[in-house]
Each structure stands twice: as structure tokens, then as C-alpha cells.
UniProtKB/TrEMBL annotation:
Protein name: Verticillium wilt resistance-like protein
Residues that span the membrane, as ranges: 833-856
Segments forming domain Disease resistance R13L4/SHOC-2-like LRR: 270-392
Similarity comment text for this entry: Belongs to the RLP family.
UniProt main location, coarse: membrane
Localization per record: Cell membrane
PANTHER family given in the database record: LEUCINE-RICH REPEAT RECEPTOR PROTEIN KINASE EMS1-LIKE-RELATED, RECEPTOR LIKE PROTEIN 30-LIKE
Keywords: Cell membrane, Glycoprotein, Leucine-rich repeat, Membrane, Receptor, Repeat, Signal, Transmembrane, Transmembrane helix
Domain Leucine-rich repeat-containing N-terminal plant-type: 22-62
Length: 897
């Protein structure tokens, strides 16, 4: 940026000449004092006494033997520059460039000694602390660059002096770069101070903590060509007077909290080449009729509230190379005049309300990125639509209503890396890809269409493919996983809900470990064979709704799997696996301790959350066809508010009703749930739409498992839900169950467990649902613990259990029941029952109504069943959330947006 402009500017008026001896000596002294990395140096490292003429040294410019410009940028200098440095004795110095170094200390005050300095560049040099007031004494400065955009740590501050004190004497300044400098002043302060710089042409102050309204006095700067105020907290309207800045070429005020209506006349500034007002959600506006004299090359209105149609005069933007109107409210049909945008390189109209047909872009030969995601466009895409667009790298036409065949021309594009056409009405047979000889394609998403016929074999010759999503179509035939394994970079494979058969037989000794990078495998409703030997790298596997039989190490519930649960051919650990659902099968035998020891993700200590914690649903969408922001847009646009507010407490049946109530025109909401998980938790069947990686779940219920509960299972400190019900387990409940500190749901019902309920169970404070019914447990339910807050149904069917909340008292061990103890106490002490009844009433009422509010997070299922239903009816946006503060995990009730 500035460091190059300094070189070009200074060379216009500084002429090389033989170096004077004392100037040479000062430069050698400077080098000897500076601390720098010789291996990364391209200038200082070559300064030596053997070359007498220092004016020929790299980075040195002279006039009449005096050093007049010094460029020491990118020299990895980390020290040796202080107030006594030899650099401040170079009195003829007019240009100094110290950009991109690693000083990590304050700017030396001795800078004021360089009274002839006109060009000063300290950008991203690592300086920190307060900008010294001595810089204000450099009254001849024409260019000053203190920006720090790379580090963006706001290490430099302008507090004393403030912005006004800094610039009031810099009357010759024409370029001022303060990006990333912490200024923290309101609009009337910094705006009026800068309005005095009548000759300034470049003013950039991004990420400066500026606040308040943009002062209209800035419009006095008639020489202004570049104005950047991005990433501040302006909460302001854009002054109408900005339209009078007739020399403006660049206006960037994105992410500033702008509001109101954007002045249309600004679009009509004939010199304007770059306009970026993106990421201002409260900023409204519409596009004008563009003048034939318009110079716009870059137009970014993304994430604003702009609306209305695109004008036919958009064709007047002959120089336009980038247009981003994504996430706005534009509507109407796309004008056919768009075909005249011959210089366009980047075109993003995603997430608007455009309708109708797509205009031709055949003349836009430079186009590399094209996204129309999330609109209402329709019609047939001609087979030659993409013909000649040889530079296209990414195409995203997802979530529209395009029909007909996939254009054959798209299959021949030589530069294409991403092809995304999901959620349309495309039909017909998918042709062969013809660029397999030199493939670049990394992503194919044609899911949720009506494509039929066999999947082209040429897809599996595209060795660079990372992502294949062909689910929810009508493809038929057989797909051999042994053929797919040649795609060594594959991370996502989705073939579910087609008419496919998946041949899982591998030649030689190969198996699923042949997919070293595979993370998501979706073969739902495809398989009719046994399937084993998964890759331990997988973090999402969906093989449900199949007819699988035979032994298998992991698989969704409700199949006909039998034998013991184990993974004999696996030698590694399952470090990412956090949901295990083997329920409703025919598994038998004991639970393998070796297998449990390999489930490392379950064992992590939840006191400190690692970087792997996040949101699985949105991570898959990020792998999928869009990023997190686009995923949220889809949720908001098509799921409607109710579905966004899904929680773990919503039964699956209610979810179905919400989806049917929320469906939009031509949009099947169920198609966005490809990677959701149905589980049984807290007594309900639920479909988790947003599955956190922090959510860990083990369900081996409804099998024929026997033997004791393994102690290894008690190592799962991260476990949130455990269901071992409806098996034939025997032995005691391990006392080490207290290790499961994050457990919220535990179901051990309908087994043959015996012994007493361990006291350690009461230390699991997050436990909200527990079912120990129909076992052979004996003894007293631990007194004085929260275990007694569960209802009697949690303990029924254990004839040997006694004590609250059960009605049978524990008299057989010599301990009197509550009623007899109370009666005995009354007879012996002649208690005044009139007084005691008042006290007991208060205590009982306190215990029933007040203590649950105090212990809200420790309440049990019966509380949530009644109170939460009321809360969700009247306050549907309240939900429990997990937060991380100082490395620890907390749970709190928060308002959801």
C-alpha cells in the first residue's frame, strides 16, 4: 500500500548520488545497533564496508550524497531502534519506511528530529502504546501511515494526543492511514478534526473504535478520493452531502451499524469506482438508473436491507468486475441487459427474492464466481448455457426452481472446482464429465432434484473431489465403494434416498479405511448387505433405513444386527465419535471393555473445552454447500421461527407438526435434515436438528446384553445421556457412576441390576431424568439427596427399595418411618401442633415452590414436564445454553434469537 507509494513518490524528486562519508558511517552504525533476522533480510544484510557508495545499498536513496529516503520494510527488525538511534541523525531524510517489522515497543519520541520528513510509514511494524505527540511536530508530512491491519490488535492508541492534537499542525497532509489504531472518539470529535485537512486525498480509518454519527463536515474535503471507515460503531446515517464529494473513487463503510436510507445520488458520482457498504443490516436503499458515465468496478451491498428490482441500466456499468448483492431484499426479474456486463468476474445475487428466468451470461468470459443461491428463479437451463465460460471456478444455483436437464456445457468447464445445483427441479440423466483427464473439480452437490439413471462413472475419475452429495434423487443402479476409494481426498459422500444399491465388497484386503479423509458418510436407504470396517476418522455416519444384517462395529438403531458389540479389526481410537446408537437390535453378550476404551471423545474432561466443540449440523452445512451464515439464512427463511427454536425437550411428533405448519411454497423442509439424529432422551423420542459436538450420547437399549455394567463406561466424563434399558444386565450400579459429572439423562430400567443405589449418584448435579425401574435393587433410597426429587415411577418394580419418594417405609432395618417418628416425637415432647402446622406449612411450601426455583438446573423430569411446557408456551425463546468462560463450561437459561 503506502510503502510502495513512498518508493515511487520519493524517486520522482530524489536523485541518487555518491554517499558522503558521515552518512555512510551513520548507516553502518544503524545496522550494527538494529536487531534483525539475517535470513529474512534483503537489505540490511547486504550493507557492508566493502561497498563504499552507500547510495547504492538496498533501501537507500540519496541526493547530493545525503540519505534522503530509507526503506527498511519487511526486514524482521525486532529491536535496536531507540531515541539515540543513528537513524535520527539523518537530517536530510524525507522518506522513512519501517513497515512490516516486529518492533513490539513504543514509537521513539526522537522522530521529531527528522524535521524534513515528508513520508512516514510505520504500518504493521509492531509498534504499540500511545502514538507520541512528537509526530505532530513533523509539519512537512505529506503521507502518514500508522495502520495495523494485519495484526488487528489495536496496539497503537490515539488518546493523548487525540486525533485533533495529532492532525492540527499537519496542514500539508494528503494521505492519512490510521486503520487499526484505537481512537475511540465520537463522530463530532474525529469528523470535525479531520475536516480541517482540506488537502487530504486519502483517509482510511477502519477498525478504529469510532462511534457516533458521521459528521457532515467531512463533505468539506473536496479533494477526497479515498474514504474508508469500515468496522466501526458509527450507528449513523450516511450524510446526503457525501454525494458532493465529486473526486471520490473509493467509498468503503461496511460493518459500521449504518441505518436509514442510503443516498441514491452517491451512486451517480462519476469518478466512483469502489462502493462497499456491506454488512449494515439496518441500511435501506434501492438502486438508481445508472449513468452511462459511471465508473463503478466494485459494488458490494451484501447483508443490507436494500430492496427493489435491478434496473435495466445496470448495463451502463461497463467496467463492473465485482457485484455482491447477497442477503438483501431485491426482487423482480433479472434484467436481460445483464448479459452486457462483459467485464464481470464475481457475481453473487444469493438469498434475495428474484424470480423468473436467468439472463444469458455468455459474453461474460471473465466470470469466475457465480451464485444465485436461495432465490425463486425458474425455467430450463439450456444445454449450452455455460458454453465459453472457461474461467468459471464456482457455480451455485441451489435452492431455486430450475428444471430440465443439467446443462451439458457445465460438464466440460476446464476451471470448475465447485458445482452446486441442489434443491431444484432438475431431471433427466446426468451426463459424463469430460474434464477427467485434468480434473480440478472438488465439490459436486446435485442433491434434492429428480435426476435419474446411473451415476456417471466419470465422477469417480475426478481425483480431486472432496465432496459428493447426490442424495434425494432418482439415481439407480449399483455403486461400488471399491471404485469410489480411488478418491483419496473425499471427505463427504452422500448417496441416500435414491434407487441405488451399494456394493460394499472390497477387492483384496481393502476396506473403509481406504477413505483416509472421509468424515461424513450418508448411505441411508441404499444398502442390503453387511457393512463393517469403518474408518475411525468418520464423525457422521448415516446408514439408517436399510436391511443390514450381520456383525458391525457401529450403526444406527432399528436393524437386525446380532452378535457381540465389538470392533476386532480396528486398531485405532475413535477420537471424534460422540453419538453411539445401537438400540433396538439383537446384540448379545457383554459390553466390550476394549471397545469402550477406544471411544476417546467420551472421556474428555468437560471442565476445559477444546477447539473441537461446536455445532455439528452447521459444520456439515459448511462442508455441504454453504457456510455458517448461509445455513442460518436458510433456517430463518425456510424453517420459520418455530423450527429455529428447536430444543432437546421437543418430542419428535411435535417436530413433524412444526415442519408441516411451517412449509413454504415449493420447499420441502425435511430435506434440510439430512444429518439430524433421532434419539430417545428423557423419556421422549426426539430429532436433534442441531447436534453439538459437545453432546455425547450412548444408547444400547433394547438388545440382549448381559453381564455387569463395565467400569470403563464410568470413564465417560463428557457423557450427557446414557440408555442401557431393556437388556439383561446384572450386578451392582458401579459406585464410580459419580464420575459422570455431565450426565443429564440415565435410563437403566428393565434389567436385572441388584444391590443398593450408590450414594455417589447424588453428586451428578445436571441429572434431569433417571429411570431405575424394574430391576432388583434393594435398600433405602439415599436420604437427603436430590435423588429423592425424582418421582416414584423412576424406582417402581424394585421390591427391595424403600424410602421417599416410594410409599413403603424402611422399617425392616430398625429405622422408624417418618409417620411413626413424628408420632413418637409428639407423644414424648407434647409439641404444640397448632404452631408446628404453621411452621411445617411454611417449610413445605418453601420446599415445593421456592427451592425448585433456587435449584432450577438440578430439577428433574417431572418439573420440566409441567413448568417447561408452560415456559415454552409463553416464553418460547427461553432455552438452556452452554457457555465457556475462562476455559470452563457453564449452563444457563438464555433468551434465544
Amino acid at each position: 500500500m503506502l510503502f510502495s507509494s513512498i518508493n515511487s513518490s520519493t524517486n520522482n524528486f530524489l536523485l541518487n548520488g555518491n554517499c558522503l562519508g558521515h552518512q555512510r558511517a551513520l548507516l553502518l552504525q544503524l545496522k550494527n545497533n538494529l536487531i534483525f533476522n539475517p535470513e529474512k533480510s534483503s537489505k540490511l544484510v547486504h550493507w557492508n564496508q566493502s561497498e563504499y557508495d552507500c547510495c547504492k545499498w538496498h533501501g537507500v536513496t540519496c541526493k547530493d550524497g545525503h540519505v534522503t529516503a530509507l526503506d527498511l520494510s519487511r526486514e524482521s527488525i525486532s529491536g535496536g531502534l531507540n531515541d539515540s538511534s543513528a537513524i535520527f541523525s539523518l537530517q536530510y531524510l524525507q522518506g522513512l519506511n519501517l513497515a512490516f517489522n516486529k518492533f513490539n515497543f513504543v514509537i521513539p519520541q526522537a522522530l521529531h528530529k527528522l524535521q524534513n520528513l515528508r513520508y512516514l510509514n510505520l504500518s504493521d511494524a509492531g509498534f504499540e502504546g500511545q502514538v507520541p505527540k512528537e509526530i505532530a511536530h513533523l509539519t512537512r508530512l505529506v503521507t502518514l501511515d500508522l495502520s495495523s491491519l494485519i495484526t488487528s490488535r489495536q496496539s497503537l492508541k490515539l488518546e493523548n494526543p487525540n486525533i485533533e492534537m495529532l492532525v492540527k499542525n499537519l496542514t500539508d497532509i494528503t494521505e492519512l492511514y490510521l486503520d487499526g489504531v484505537a481512537i475511540s472518539s465520537s463522530g463530532d470529535e474525529w469528523g470535525r478534526a479531520l475536516s480541517l485537512l482540506e488537502g487530504v486525498r486519502v483517509l482510511t480509518m477502519s477498525s478504529c473504535n469510532l462511534s457516533g454519527a458521521i459528521d457532515s463536515s467531512l463533505a468539506k474535503l473536496q479533494s477526497l478520493s479515498v474514504l474508508r471507515l469500515n468496522n466501526n460503531k458509527l450507528s449513523s446515517k450516511v450524510p446526503d452531502s457525501f454525494a458532493n464529494l465529486s473526486n471520490l473513487t473509493i467509498l468503503e463503510i461496511s460493518s459500521c451499524g449504518l441505518n436509514g436510507f442510503f443516498p441514491k445520488d452517491i451512486f451517480q458520482i462519476h469518478t466512483l469506482k469502489v462502493l462497499d457498504i456491506s454488512d449494515n443490516q439496518n441500511l435501506s436503499g434501492s438502486l438508481p438508473d445508472f449513468s452511462p458515465l459511471a465508473s463503478l468496478k466494485y459494488l458490494n451491498l451484501a447483508d443490507t436491507n436494500f430492496s427493489g428490482p435491478l434496473p435495466n441500466t445496470i448495463s451502463n456499468l461497463k467496467h463492473l468486475s465485482t457485484i455482491d448483492l447477497s442477503h438483501c431484499q431485491f426482487n423482480g426479474t433479472l434484467p436481460s441487459s445483464m448479459s452486457e456486463l462483459t467485464q464481470i468476474v464475481y457475481l453473487d445475487l444469493s438469498f434475495n427474492n428474484f424470480t423468473g428466468l436467468l439472463p444469458s451470461l455468455s459474453m461474460s468470459k471473465n466470470l469466475t464466481y457465480l451464485s444465485l443461491l436461495g432465490n425463486y428463479l425458474s425455467g430450463n437451463l439450456p444445454s449450452n448455457y455455460f458454453e465459453g465460460l472457461i474461467n468459471l471456478v464456482s457455480i451455485n444455483f441451489g435452492i431455486n426452481s430450475f428444471n430440465g436437464d443439467v446443462p451439458s456445457s457445465v460438464l466440460t468447464l476446464p476451471s470448475l472446482r465447485e458445482l452446486k445445483l441442489p434443491h431444484n427441479k432438475l431431471s433427466g440423466i446426468l451426463g459424463e464429465f469430460h474434464n477427467a483427464s485434468s480434473p480440478l473439480l472438488e465439490m459436486i452437490d446435485l442433491s434434492n432434484n429428480y435426476l435419474q439413471g446411473p451415476i456417471p462413472l466419470s465422477i469417480f475419475n475426478l481425483r480431486t473431489l472432496r465432496f459428493i452429495q447426490l442424495s434425494y434423487n432418482k439415481f439407480n443402479g449399483t455403486v461400488k465403494l471399491d471404485v469410489i476409494r480411488r478418491l483419496s481426498n473425499l471427505t463427504v459422500l452422500g448417496l441416500s434416498y435414491n434407487n441405488l444399491l451399494i456394493d460394499v465388497n472390497f477387492k483384496d484386503d481393502h476396506n473403509m479405511s481406504s477413505f483416509p479423509k472421509l468424515r461424513v458418510l450418508d448411505l441411508e436407504s441404499c444398502l442390503e448387505e453387511s457393512f463393517s470396517n469403518f474408518s475411525s476418522n468418520l464423525n457422521t455416519v448415516d446408514l439408517s433405513s436399510n436391511n443390514l444384517q450381520g456383525p458391525i462395529p457401529l450403526i444406527p438403531k432399528s436393524n437386525k444386527l446380532h452378535g457381540s458389540i465389538g470392533c476386532p479389526n480396528s486398531t485405532g481410537d475413535w477420537k471424534m465419535l460422540h453419538i453411539i446408537d445401537l438400540a433396538c437390535n439383537n446384540f448379545s453378550g457383554t459390553i466390550s471393555s476394549a471397545l469402550l476404551n477406544s471411544w476417546k471423545a467420551m472421556m474428555r474432561d468437560e471442565d476445559v473445552l477444546g477447539p473441537e466443540f461446536g455445532n455439528l449440523f452447521f459444520e456439515v452445512l459448511d462442508y455441504y454447500t454453504m457456510g455458517l451464515k448461509d445455513a442460518l439464512r436458510i433456517m430463518n427463511k425456510y424453517y420459520a421461527t418455530k423450527v429455529v427454536q428447536l430444543t432437546l425437550k421437543m418430542p419428535h411428533s411435535d417436530l413433524d407438526q412444526v415442519i408441516s405448519d411451517s412449509s413454504a411454497d415449493d420447499v420441502d423442509l425435511r430435506r434440510y435434515q439430512d444429518y439430524s439424529v433421532i434419539i430417545v432422551n428423557k423419556g421422549h423420542q426426539m430429532k436433534l436438528i442441531k447436534v453439538q459436538k459437545a453432546f455425547t450420547y450412548v444408547d444400547m437399549s433394547s438388545n440382549y446384553l448381559e453381564g455387569p455394567i463395565p467400569n470403563e463406561l464410568m470413564q465417560f466424563k463428557a457423557l450427557n445421556a446414557l440408555n442401557l434399558s431393556h437388556n439383561a444386565l446384572t450386578g451392582h450400579i458401579p459406585s464410580s457412576v459419580g464420575n459422570l459429572k455431565n450426565l443429564e439423562c440415565m435410563d437403566l430400567s428393565n434389567n436385572s441390576l441388584n444391590g443398593e443405589i450408590p450414594q455417589e449418584l447424588s453428586s451428578i448435579y445436571f441429572l434431569e431424568y433417571m429411570n431405575l425401574s424394574f430391576n432388583h435393587l434393594v435398600g433405602r433410597i439415599p436420604l437427603g439427596t436430590q435423588i429423592q426429587s425424582f418421582d416414584a415411577d423412576s424406582f417402581k418394580g424394585n421390591e427391595g427399595l424403600c424410602g421417599p419418594p416410594l410409599t413403603n417405609n424402611c422399617n425392616n432395618d430398625g429405622v422408624q418411618g417418618f409417620a411413626s417418628e413424628l408420632s413418637h416425637s409428639h407423644n414424648d415432647n407434647s409439641i404444640d401442633w397448632n404452631l408446628l402446622s404453621v411452621e411445617l406449612g411454611f417449610i413445605f411450601g418453601f420446599g415445593i415452590f421456592i427451592l425448585p426455583l433456587i435449584w432450577l438446573m438440578k430439577w428433574r423430569l417431572w418439573y420440566f414436564k409441567h413448568v417447561d411446557e408452560m415456559l415454552y408456551r409463553f416464553l418460547p425463546q427461553l432455552d438452556f445454553v452452554y457457555e465457556q468462560q475462562e476455559g470452563k463450561r457453564y449452563r444457563s437459561l438464555r433468551w434465544r434469537y
